[in-house]
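task queued by scheduler; priority normal; single chain, no ligands, no partner chains; default sampling; output format set to structure tokens
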Amino acid sequence: MKADFLRPPRTVAEWIADALRVLGLLGVVVAAIWWGPTDAGIVALATPALMLPRMLGMRGSFDAAACAIVLAAAWSNVFGLYTSVAGWDLLLHFLCTGMLAIVAALVLTRTKVVQITSGDRVRARTPLVLLPLIALALSAVWEMVEWLGKAYLSDDIFVTYQDTIGDMVFGGLGGLLAGLLLSRTQVERTRRAE
């Protein structure tokens, strides 16, 4: 993981992903100055999700897509898009949870918990089964964080039963699409002899 993280970018997509990571880090400072501590905290929560794809050696296109989706999810909260744009919340739960399920699958594969993304023993159906389950688990955690935020940080956080269930359904569907994608596509970059 360290070698992947420290490896210089080689493709346009890898440069874009790194630029998005820098913007994400600068965004924490911008949110703290112009919006406030709660918004800065929301943007800061995105930073681990911006770093993991690089650490895991994701292909540049997936890395850039992951960073763009995570930043869109964080800043949508700051700009109030979840409540002001119809369907935006569900779209972001679909995209973000699916992408984070792929990242989680890479973590589980790399730590040898279960082979999901690569290896001789991985069958095409493995990600089709496991990614929706991972996505539903991530959706549950996401909704718990929203609830904790509303209960202990700010009444401005929108949480209702219907919203929670809808978010989880779309997160699960994002996981289903992620599983389909992962069963057909290699998301880790090709390793060269270095």
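post-processing summary
- Residues 80-189 form one domain.
- The chain is about 75% helix and 0% strand.
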